Amino acid sequence: MKPLLLSLAILLGAFFPVTAEPIRIVDDIGRNVALDRPAIRIVSDYDIDVTIPLIELGILPIASHGRIQGNGKPYLRSSRLLTGVDFDNSDIIFLGAAEIDLERVAALKPDLIVTEVSRPTPVDKLEQLAPTLVINSDLGAPHVYRLLAQATGREPERLRLESRYLAQIALLKSEVRTDMQTVSVFQPLRGKLNVYHSYRAIGQVLRDAGFRFPNLLDEVPEGQSIVVSAERLPELDADVIFDPYRSDRKAGAKAEIAAMEKMIPGFCRFLKACRNGRYVLIPREEAISNSYAALSRMVATVQTTFAPHPAATTASDP
After folding, report:
1. 3-state SS track over 75-139
2. pLDDT tens digits, 168-184
3. Whose CA, among 77, 124, 287, 316, lies 20 to 30 Å from 21?
4. DSSP state of 69
């Protein structure tokens, strides 16, 4: 029996790397969340900013919010692209595309529910079913992962992901004089321009790397966005412009360009970046995720954008 007991002890130690001390967390709306031990049976109320980070930390939530495809099939937005995990290749239960199914959540008996401040399901209903942690994903991936790692005892995994990201940022800064370059991120939105202080993963990378931004972006409060009229397009010009397009739709980047043209015919001539071939369309399904997987992809995108290009040669050149 002793070897068996020893094996069980090792196994439990792997599940609960943190001691059995109760966990106390102050969440992003100032609530005190108490857990008897690191959470394992977790329900996620937001696929893109909770489910994906949990998967990256090594935990598959037992159930999650998701989206519905045109054929009626549920999916986790951006997850297959960034983690390889989706409803159809995991045991994660689909809970709904807007408000989640509270009866289903109650039947699952989770030991933690994680939601996000923008989610429609009221927190007071969730906390009747299980301890509920509320996060504000606008504060960025590193902040989200710190809260989730604290609740799940996955601090070593968080530190590994953070270490990889910091090494990637250091490499980017070693190759690009980021303090000498201006960058801008915006997208067309129903005939106007949607401007963020830091657009999710791409914004986090650009800020962390030390790039400079047009005044209009810097004036937007951190964690927020504004909508401005098309006449203010020149104020968004920079050395490089990133425009996150809907990569989950058939028309993709072409639809994004068409939306810009519809708003401002010949828009490219009003932007130095565009005239110089530096208006870069990037997949929104990667840029929008507050996850280390998305940050890693965005570092590679920025690094490639600013990489030096060899000069063209002619047949007469040596």
Report:
1. ECCCHHHHCCCCHHHCCCEECCCCCCCHHHHHHHCCCEEEEECCCCCCHHHHCCCCCEEEECHHH
2. 999 999 999 999 999 99
3. 124
4. -
